[in-house]
TrEMBL record, chain A:
It comes from the Bacteria. GO terms for molecular function: ATP binding; ATP hydrolysis activity. It comes from Candidatus Lucifugimonas marina. This is Nitrous oxide reductase family maturation protein NosD. Keywords: ATP-binding, Nucleotide-binding, Transport. Belongs to the ABC transporter superfamily.
From TrEMBL, chain B:
It comes from the Bacteria. The lineage of its organism: Bacteria, Bacillati, Chloroflexota, Dehalococcoidia, SAR202 cluster. This is Nitrous oxide reductase accessory protein NosL. It comes from Candidatus Lucifugimonas marina. InterPro entries: N2O_reductase_NosL (IPR008719). It holds the Pfam family NosL.
Amino acid sequence: MLNSRAGKITSTIATLIVLMAVGSTISSIRAQSSGSIESDRGSYSTFQDALDASQDGDVLTVTSGTHTGNFVIDKSVTVQGVDWPTFDGGGVGNVFTIEAPNVVITGLIIQNSGNKLNSEDAGIEANAPGVVIDGNRIQNTLFGIYLKQAPNGDIRNNVITGMDLEVQRRGDGIRVWYSSDTVIENNDVSLVRDVVLWYSERLTVRNNDIHDGRYGLHFMYDDDALVENNRLTGNSVGAFLMYSRRLQMIGNVVGDNRGPSGYGIGLKDLDDAYVEGNLFADNRVGAYVDNSPRERDSKVEFIDNVFVLNDFGVRLMPSVKRNQYTGNSFVDNQEQVQVAGRGTIEENDWAVDGIGNYWSDYAGFDADNDGVGDVIYKSEKLFENLTDKHPKLRLLTFSPVTQAVDFAAKSFPFVRPEPKLTDPSPLVQPGTVPGLLLDKKVFAWKTLLASLAFVGLAGVVARIGSTKGERNTEQKEAVEPVEPTDPVGGNVIEVIDLSRSFGDVRALQNLTFNLASGEGLALWGNNGAGKTTAIRCILGQVSYEGSVSICGIDVAAKGKLARAKVGLVPQEISFHDDLTVLDTMRLYTKLRKSNHDEGSALLERLSLAPHLSKQVRQLSGGLRQRLALAIALLGDPPILLLDEPTANLDAAARQDFLALLEDLKAEGKALVFASHRPGEVLRLADRVLLLDQGKLVAESEPEDLMTRIGALPKMRIEVGLRNVESAMTALSNDKFETSANRTGVYVTVAPGEKALPIKTLVDAGIPVVDFDLEGTGKGDIDD
Amino acid sequence: MSTPKRVGILLLMIIGALSLIACQSEVDIETTPEIAYGEVICEQCGMIVSEEAQAAAYRLPDGNLRIFDDLGDMVLYHRLNGEDVHIFWVHDYQTGEWMHAPDAFFVATEDLVTPMGHGIAAFTYEAGAEHLANEHSAPIYRWDELLEAPLADLPRHID
């Protein structure tokens, strides 16, 4: 009994000691403050002391160390960190609460707020105007930055990472609440619930990267907001924008948002929204529009956006009216435009001022080559019509039922549905819209151009006109695929009497050539000679007369199949600069229906693996060109088509790139390239076609052509007056082209062969005193 | 395959496809709603229904369920669509349990943050409602009053 009681007492004492020890430890943690704090009032050992002593306008400089606690800043001070001091909330409440105006917080690590949603624990909560939160790392906080009735704030350059909780238990990375005129820019926000911007006018949200959350952006009651150049990726929804007026959404990348609704952007009850130049890629729904606009005298404009590879390009609720769509491109979305439920969307405009949209499933033609299809685009697929009204039928998408239903609609007009929409002025290829984006936001159309060039979609539009009616439609090709045949006579390209005219101008006249595997063919000529036109004809991107076949496939008849055999590297690579290298490859991997492993392998092979997380804008010219080549090689095409491939590269990058192409050629790739550079031609080409004003002037070996046009450099070798004659003889015997020059000789040399004449002379026992290279005026030889 | 046979198969496929439209599973219209949080979409606003405590739903006489991420969105949707409703369900603000909306007491205040900003909370007991109402100087509504309250009187309304 006693023992038992003694045991209990011992146990109780032990427990008390442990509790006291724990309490002491907690107390010491909360009191802990290391590092140094300098302010206008002096030096302090704890941040709280420095804060207490501070006055409005003071600057508190905190150098490294950790400062634990919940700090209330009630004076207008600047807190600036040096060497990343850490402020740790210890898992309780807010780390910082700002109660004074114009506070600046910069250069800090702010972490471990409380995790209670009810009390909305945050890294920084500001309740005063004019705060600047710049360049901090805010991590493991429930809410990152919370502006509550704190207008004129500036949140920029912060990295905000939330708590690793279920998404509904997380807080918001940034919450702006009744805080008008706030600027949010250059922040990276991840692992949070949402970025919530409510009841705030004139917001600017620019250049942020918001990913892996629920709502990238959630707007409500925010008039006159500008949302520009942000990346909203990997969220459940990219941006849900509601109950606001005059929102401008420009130049954003909205991709891979595939939550339950999976909207790239959702517009609900918005008036006068302006959506321009955005890329919507690989979302469930590119853009969802519900009851927008609300007011009779307002509208919603979608201009020059690219909707690519979404399940649904645009989803409109049946009540939607007064939407205008112009210059947009709808590329390979499973359903380009969906009407969600019963009703029509006929009170929306699908062309404005004669400019419609590009539709990758358009099967019309452009006889007058004005860039606008001569037949209106109608979306009238019966199966889509049925699934819009009865979503359960979507289970049958991609099954034979889809084709059966659509076939039935075509065969029996009485079951054909009313067109879901009609675009009276469909664009047949990108680039025919006004230069709006090219002036203001270059990337969108350039991205599209690049996309279309790589996947060859521009040629999907079947044309008549000057072409002699030999083109079959791509639609037929899609239904009845034809296996490629083996190259005839070993040639992978055969071009016969190829001609192309623009009105009275003959851009290309009766060009004939062929090319075998492992061969290099250069197209040489001045601007306007017809090089690029020839490339576009080979790709089937423009109409032409004559015959082009790739691996035995007639380009005019089966363009898509033929283009699959070609990898294109355009002269100027126009990626979306905001995408990373990896995201870019993923996009094109999907576009070319290739697989991720192949994309990764190509990035590895072309030494791009160390740059996967870099945005394309951060790449050097050489790396951009490598990325273009990697994309061109997707699907392992036997032919590479290159348009001035090194025109924009410096000398070192040019050499690297040419070496890559030489390797590919050695592996059996056939290269066709347009070029102005003798060095490039000499290294890569086995034959050169000299073009002038659309005509083939000559076909020759590279050295012959270079010599003919005086493009090869001359080497002046000093041998002394008495050795000139014997040097001329020795060099001529070795087939060098020579001429005498008093005490030396001139020798014409190809790149990479400058040592050969020297060797010839040394072997002949003729002393070489000196040598020099002389330029040609025909461009660098770049060896 | 002969053409008549092909046409026959084709018609069968179409009929099979169309018959899917008619497929409806039987449901017990009295059971509490089952919501796959984080996976379903609010009928009114189109957003994801994530927060259980704020979710609401109503069931139609044919068993179909309308789900909302915010109690206020249910009120709004019903006002806009006027459907014949069998049962309205809301969550008790304190316990998180489902309850019939007509049995609940409601407090509407701007100070309450709800997914769509309606700021309405439901309570099983009037005392709970009174506590919150007193704290925020907010009115208490019964369900019928809430359905008919002037929009301007509610914290968030469609202007």
